[in-house]
Amino acid sequence: PQRGTQGPAGANLFIYHIPVTWSDGELVQCFSPFGTVISATVFKDKLTNQSKGFGFVSYDNAVSAQNAIAGMNGMQIEGKRLKVEIKKPRGPYGQ
Asked: What is the chain's Cα-based Rg?
């Protein structure tokens, strides 16, 4: 998967409460059972390179994203409970 690539509408997920030990690879590993992951990104602080505890996962279709929400939202990992939801489009007109 490539970093930062977006899938079609409804196929892009926002993941909150990611364990700080995770990198992009752990996101791919955790979310790939639900479909083809085309992008997985853990956001890191530019100065410290520490995880900010959130990231994005994009699939090649919206059905996989819905399956991932059903399977992963509320999942407890390393003492944290993941929050998984559809990434909202930016801007007032979804651009």
From this structure: 13
